[in-house]
């Protein structure tokens, strides 16, 4: 599904379905610490009913499944959900193709709603009241994010420069260490309980880093087949010149926990 938003990439369209196979293979990269932070908050475990918005290939539900929550994942991309179902074989996870703005689960269905790497895509003024409605009394909304740091990591910085060469309107560049910003409209229904930002290293090989970069919005989700072929050839050549076979990429992660005011 082609998505266009004038606030993202200057309105250039992108389609996660174009890169779902690479997304499934190369974007399941959160380290154990990332999941432990969630568990330390007492969330997404022990029979809690959890809705994962923008679930993509089901990375969060799959990796946290063993902790005992009952997961439901939704995503606007049919191809992403197909990958999620394939990778979740044998797990009792429900997946649905639906935009967050159109979700219609019954009132007070979920103990926790998670939004990982997708919060900024939402039409927040139209979403916030529905999220509040679907959460149980004192239910939690957990927003999660992780990104490489291009100004602190040479390999990440050079890869990002190459993305911008092919996608100059890509607005995902230039990340710095900062807290997640929650739009003011959430103050009507939610209280912020906790927020945290922390540094971490994520391990890659040349192959998996190339795949991770290919599976980003400014590359595989938006470039033409010919552009993508040219980008990948140039990226692989660059990595052979500046990167060892295996390496760590400096990232930061952030979370914010909100509680429904019921």
UniProtKB/TrEMBL annotation:
Keywords for this protein: Methyltransferase, Transferase
The UniProt record lists the keyword Transferase: yes
Transferase among keywords: yes
Gene Ontology biological process: methylation
Family annotation (SUPFAM superfamilies): S-adenosyl-L-methionine-dependent methyltransferases (SSF53335)
InterPro entries per UniProt: Diverse_substrate_MTase, Methyltransf_11, SAM-dependent_MTases_sf
Pfam family, one: Methyltransf_11
Annotated GO MF terms: S-adenosylmethionine-dependent methyltransferase activity
Domain Methyltransferase type: 51-143
Family designation: Belongs to the methyltransferase superfamily.
Protein name: Class I SAM-dependent methyltransferase
Organism: Candidatus Eisenbergiella merdigallinarum
């Amino acid at each position: 599904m082609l998505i266009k938003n004038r606030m993202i990439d200057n309105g250039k369209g992108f389609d996660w379905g174009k890169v779902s196979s690479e997304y499934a293979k190369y974007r399941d990269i959160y380290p154990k610490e990332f999941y432990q932070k969630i568990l330390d908050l007492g969330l997404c475990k022990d029979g809690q009913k959890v809705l994962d918005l923008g679930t993509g290939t089901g990375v969060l539900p799959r990796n946290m499944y063993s902790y005992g929550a009952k997961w439901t994942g939704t995503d606007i991309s049919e191809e992403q959900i197909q990958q999620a179902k394939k990778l979740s074989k044998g797990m009792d996870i429900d997946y649905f193709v639906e935009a967050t703005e159109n979700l219609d689960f019954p009132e007070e269905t979920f103990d926790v709603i998670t939004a990982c790497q997708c919060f900024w895509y939402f039409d927040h003024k139209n979403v916030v009241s529905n999220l509040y409605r679907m959460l149980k009394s004192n239910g939690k909304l957990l927003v999660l994010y992780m990104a490489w740091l291009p100004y602190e990591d040479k390999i990440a910085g050079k890869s990002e420069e190459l993305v911008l060469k092919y996608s100059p309107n890509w607005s995902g560049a230039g990340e710095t260490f900062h807290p997640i910003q929650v739009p003011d409209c959430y103050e009507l229904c939610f209280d912020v309980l906790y927020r945290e930002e922390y540094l971490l290293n994520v391990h890659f090989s040349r192959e998996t880093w190339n795949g991770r970069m290919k599976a980003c919005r400014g590359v595989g989700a938006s470039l033409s087949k010919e552009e993508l072929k040219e980008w990948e050839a140039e990226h692989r050549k660059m990595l052979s010149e500046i990167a060892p076979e295996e390496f760590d990429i400096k990232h930061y992660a952030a979370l914010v926990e909100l509680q429904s005011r019921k």
